[in-house]
Amino acid sequence: MGSVVFWNSLRFVVAVLAQILICNHIDLFGYINPLVYIYFILLFPFNANRSLFLILAFALGLTIDLFSDSGGANAAACVIIAYIRPFVLRFAFGISYEHQSVRLENTAFGQRMVYIIILVFIHHFFLFLLEIFNISNILLTLKNTLFFSIFTILIITLSITLFSRKSS
Question: Mind telling me which residue stretches traverse the membrane in this protein (predicted)?
Fold first, then answer.
């Protein structure tokens, strides 16, 4: 139990610091930067207390909002994906999720990508919808969602592949 709390606390801090100190200063093509802090939400234990998970997702988003001056958009987007995560897990992993036997680094690449892609796109869509908050700019919202999502998915997939513990 203590080990799980330690690793999740460390993952929370590393996600926030990586976003604030590194990723917020990357400007691919002048405006695209990866939003890797959602790595914490993607990898949070699947069988953890749901209420605690929603609170931590809100705290994560709010922390990013405080440093990014984004007025709560990150907090709202994080809570949305934390709330729908069980449905996405059930869709991506099926019966394995139902039996609580899923470990993201041990799943098939296709299932892992479906899970990551769905949550990243939903997060980014709601984030940019709330940031832009103008229906006449829906094309800008969709363009930002697409390009930021592609870059974020690449970085998150690479980091999961590089830093996951392989079970023998």
Answer: 6-24, 36-60, 72-93, 114-133, 145-163
